[in-house]
Amino acid sequence: MSQRGSGLKEDPGRLAPGPALAGALLLATILCGGMVNQAQAQRLVPVADGVYVFPGNVNSGVVVTGRGVVVIDTQISPPLARRLLAEIRRVSDHPIAYVINTHYHGDHTYGNVVFAREAPIIAHERTPGLMRSREHRMKDFYESRGFPVRSSPVVLPTLTFSDRLTLALDDEVIELRHLGKTETDDAIVVHLPRKGVLFGGDTVRGRDFPMLGMPNMAEGLTMEGEWVRVLEEIERLRPPVVVPGHGPILRDLRVIARQRALMQDLIAAMRPFLASGTPLAEIKRQLRLPQYADLPQSWGSLEFAIERLYHNETGWLAPSVSRLPRASAEQVAAARSGGSPEALLAEARRALQQGQVPLALGLADAAIMCAPGRGGLYAAKADLLWDAAWRVFGRFDRGDYVVAARRAIEEALQREPGEPLARLHRGLDLLATIPFTGQSPDEGMAEIRASLAGLPQAAHAKAYYGLGLGHRAKGELQQAREAFERALGLEPGLTPAREALAGLQGR
């Protein structure tokens, strides 16, 4: 095999593993959604002869050649990386020849520790430095959004390049190109011209509103529009198949063209606001892009996009990315119709049903203030947070609900260790964090089963949903279907159960 390109460099330096995981974040199922069973059930999907995608919240690539296997992005955690390696061994017994990181973000690199024993890791020359200097900020952000990554080791690339590197393995040609700064300053794409496949990393998004840069980093879309020019270059390559870093595989370049147009329209819309010195809050109130209202806000959102451009232009950075809404004391007082904790919780539940999330959470806090020693009140607040989170479009926004619910559940279990609603949500969390911990689903399922006898009837649907997650994680798909169907029979509007059941179709 041969290597051709600009400035291939070795970097043997590696960061030691971070501190031990302090504890899984509770209710991460709100945030992670379909990640729950990935450590057990993900499979390679062929996209061309010898080219596969390992799909999920992060898409990894696998290229099988006669001289070895090339892996593109190593997943968000060591357990998922081990699952990826097991899947590779299902289709090939060739050694791993190279591992490629498309950029430094941890959701694409925390699995490096598994593959470092197998092969050299290649990335752009900026990547090792970014991984070193931004490790703590990056982990702080992931943790604040509900991803328990604190203990994930950070293993650096060992080979780097500047602009372009070509790997030739027998008759397979793999081109690594840094086309410019996009979501990150070190972003690269991986092009297989003979196979007609391009792995875009986070330079290319799927069919949702793009995430235009990590909110707490100085990176991403700028007013100069370098990312726009990179997308134009990808369009000129005309690959029949494009694999984004997140989301469905693309076979229509018009999706990329629309992503490019969105960025151009956003930049154009921001210019007059920035030129006039309009405050950020006013920009977010006024700026609208109705032509993109149909794009799901799975990760990115217009609000995040506005903040990203404002940050890159002015240097402003929000001290907190929290989106948890708050009601004023006056609003809560005006809504109170009774003084008992039970009456306040009933009002909170009605407010949530009417879409008044800030008021619902404020009333739950008022109930706790009436009887701060009752663990069940904290558990009820966590349950409200769980339900409210499914009304939020963006998964990063849902993270605020995850963190707040975690605190409420901790308070509940400190006061009443056997509180059924708290145990239900602890069980849901144990199942949700399997992709990060690699643990068996049995403990989470046991917590849920133990909670059932004491749960209010209204919470039984969530319990069966949780048991469905456990069965799905164990590969027991028929039992999972039955549990999800039972959950929906009890609560037809239970969104996560409906989504989980839909995900089993055809399996």
Secondary structure topology:
Elements: E1 2-5, E2 9-10, H1 29-32, H2 38-41, E3 45-48, E4 51-54, E5 60-65, E6 68-72, H3 78-91, E7 96-100, H4 106-109, H5 112-115, E8 121-124, H6 127-133, H7 135-144, E9 159-161, E10 164-169, E11 172-177, E12 189-192, E13 197-201, H8 226-237, E14 241-244, H9 253-275, H10 280-286, H11 302-314, H12 329-335, H13 341-353, H14 357-370, H15 375-389, H16 395-415, H17 420-432, H18 434-437, H19 442-452, H20 460-473, H21 477-490, H22 495-503
Parallel strand pairs: 6-7, 7-8, 8-9, 13-14
Antiparallel strand pairs: 1-10, 2-9, 3-4, 4-5, 5-6, 10-11, 11-12, 12-13
Helix pairs in contact: 8-9, 9-11, 12-14, 13-14, 13-15, 14-15, 15-16, 15-17, 16-17, 17-19, 17-20, 19-20, 20-21, 21-22
Describe this entry's structure for a reader.
The chain is α/β, with parallel strands linked by helices. It folds into 3 domains: 2-19 and 26-314, Metallo-beta-lactamase, Chain A, CATH 3.60.15; 321-415, Tetratricopeptide repeat domain (Serine Threonine Protein Phosphatase 5, Tetratricopeptide repeat, Alpha Horseshoe); 417-507, Tetratricopeptide repeat domain (Serine Threonine Protein Phosphatase 5, Tetratricopeptide repeat), CATH 1.25.40.10. 47% of the residues lie in helices and 12% in strands. It is built from 22 helices and 14 strands. The strands form 2 sheets. The chain has an 8-stranded mixed sheet, with helices on one face. A 6-stranded mixed sheet has the order 1-10-11-12-13-14, with no helix packed on it.
